[in-house]
Amino acid sequence: MAKTNTQASTLVERHGLTDDRLREIFRTMLLQRQLDNRGFQLNRQGKVPFALGSEGHEALQAGAAMAFHRGKDILAPYYRDLGLAVGIGLTPYEILLSLFARAADHNGGRQFPNHYSSKAAGLMSFSSILAAHIPHAVGAAYALQYRGEAGRAVLATCGDGTTSEGEWHESMNFAAIHKLPFVMLVENNEWAISTPLSKQMAQPEIWKRAAGYGMPGRRFDGFDPIATYAAVKEAMDRARTGGGPSLIEGTCYRYLAHSTDDNDMTYRTREEVLERRKLDPVPRFERVLVEGGVMTAAEIDAMRKDVLRETNEATDAAEALPYPQPADLYTHVYEGAWQPWQ
Amino acid sequence: MAVSSSSTSTVMNNVEAVRATLYEAMKNDDRTIIIGEDVGARGNVFLITKDFIGEFGAERVIDTPIAEASIVGIAVGMAMEGLRPIAEIQFADFIYPAFNQIVGEAAKTRYRSNGEYTCPLVIRTPYGGGVRGALSHSVSIEALFYHVPGLKIVAPAFPADVKGLLNAAIDDPDPVLFLEHKKTYRLIKGEVPDGHYTIPIGKANVLKEGTQLTVVSYGLYVHWALEAAAQLQADGLSVEVIDLRSIRPMDKTAILNSVEKTRKLLVIHEDNKFGGIGAEISAMVAEEALFHLDAPIRRHCAPDVPAMGYALPLEEEYMSSPAEMAEAMREMVAF
Question: What tens digit of pLDDT does each residue of B225-259 get?
């Protein structure tokens, strides 16, 4: 089981983050949790067939998103990266379109919810097949390096379970050989659906594999958005300036079941979940902001209400839109119209 | 490469046609990247890309680790990000680790993103037997992939088609699996028009016109089928031979036009019969032209074993021959 830092984050070191930036991080965290819960609510209401949770990843993702340069960097995320998606600029409305599988969704209602894609935001399309996106991220990083686009880097993310895949290893190896502008951010939440870390790997500190690839690696407290920001920024800055790839690992926890179709009480105990709940990054960072004088309790309350309002408006707006038409099944197989027989 | 009497074409073999076409693609578009095992310093195991690394640089001719899934996967990422990668799988038999990247990723990139991301990628690989390649250097892989919408599959048999179809594959906005029969690499020579040209993917070629039987094939067996048809011709029997050239999409019009004329269909391929390309062709003809037929459709294909063996009798038993093909053709004509 991953060791996690139970020390409350303080504002002793803010790594250059202004009060505005800290508030922005916190708002992303609140938005992630609200949208995350909205998916589960809509599923329980029978309005959407499926949703994936990301509760427990808020600090990690909001902190990482703050280190992402919009309009320059490329993000290759996985399906638990709701906070990263909204943190780099996807709107709640876009998230809800995906939940409701509406025609106006980026994927046209084809993919599961939480399979973000936005060329405008620099967010690469990905499938549900874990680690299959890591070579894509490395290929994109190769393209940046080949074109000499200094100042740009690719941030790829995955969970701890994905690091068991062969393509994950192959990609790390290739990125290191070519010193690519690539950062592998592992969100270690201790669980791969029902399989604990101990059955995924004998050596539980994923960042230590960096030495084997010949790249820098480090672990950080992913319950702390400032520590996350610092670690991701350090790695991304290195990648953007010709310093090559990094493997960084943030510790977090998956508070919810894997998805709305999973019952986590069949494989882990309530006691374990409650124990980890003490680290919940949302109230923890809230305390940091209040005690650090960045936000008052009233301001936080107002922000929560605003996030709820935005989520409700996005829900209503997305729900009101139509599904794709049956004829939409046949588009974008190839460029243009096509038949297997010509 | 020998220059022919005509100033507008050059005689070359299939391997030289691949090489010349790749060379032009590298010269003409600096987004073109060749990525694969031993493609750089060694210049590919068949010397297809020999000296490319010196001319175009190691950043455009990438010697990869031995890792097929990521050869294709990294090429997919390059394609999504605006490059025009040509990935090489050293032997088609080694493509299995890349199956997910081809089927689950490349073929679905455009579809799953509703057209927002695309994957203009060529995957080249030498396939096929008759070269003492044993179990893992001789397989035909086309049937494993032709079920997959989103992919295109090309398998040319002649140098001029290699050039025209490889150019088309490189220009194509979608992923193309480009199959090169390795026994034809140096065996088959022909005139190749100079200059840039493309042959549309999905167009078959009627190589020999005939009236009593339609033979549909592709790859090495096209050449053997032509030999067999010539033997029958000497006896006054008239066989039409169609080279598919493209497997997906496939030229239905060419097949149906021919079958409606000859009223008999024989499909010949090197891959084994069960679930092979011939199954789809047979089903299509049965659906669309059953009442034009004067004989049951027949498939002359490899036996249902995992692969051809290394020992010569095992390879010969697996492979067909012009003589066996001629026998099958005679039986069909006589039916």
Answer: 999 999 999 999 999 999 999 999 999 999 999 99
Phi and psi of B240, rounded to 5°? Answer: -95, 130
Which H/E stretch holds residue B11?
strand B9-13
Q: Which amino acid is at A102?
A: R
Q: Which residues of B touch A177 (CB under 8 A)?
A: 65
List C-alpha distances in Å: B185 to A50, B45, B143, B179: 51, 12, 21, 11
A5 has a pLDDT exceeding 50: no
Based on C-alpha coordinates, what's the Rg of chain A? 20
Nearest one of A2, A15, A3 to A227, comparing CA atoms: A15
Percent of chain B past pLDDT 90, that is, above it, reads 98
The sign of the CA dihedral B258, B302, B199, B248 is positive
CB pairs under 8 A between A and B: 154
Kindly indicate the confidence band of residue A3, based on its pLDDT and cuts at 50, 70 and 90: very low
Percentage of the residues of chain A whose pLDDT score is greater than 70: 97
CB contact under 8 A, A125 and B73: no
Do B252 and A144 lie within an 8 Å CB cutoff? no
Cβ <8 Å between B82 and A143: yes
**Dihedral sign from CA coordinates of B2, B3, B6, B10:** positive
A157 membership: H or E segment, kind and range: strand A154-159
List chain B residues with CB under 8 Å of A127. 104-105, 108, 112
Alpha carbon B84 to its chain centroid, in Å, reads: 20
Distance CA B145, CA B247 (A): 10
Q: Taking CB atoms and an 8 Å cutoff, what residues of chain B touch A144? A: 81
Coil, helix or strand at residue B122 = strand
Residue A276 φ/ψ region, left for φ over 0, alpha for ψ in the -120 to 50 degree band, beta for the rest: alpha
Q: What tokens does A167 get?
A: 């393509």
Complex ipTM > 0.90: yes
Pick the residue from chain B with its C-alpha nearest to A122: B81
- What's this model's pTM, rounded to 2 decimal places? 0.96
Kindly tell me the sign of the dihedral angle through the C-alpha atoms of A55, A59, A64, A67.
positive
Average pLDDT estimate for A120-144: 98
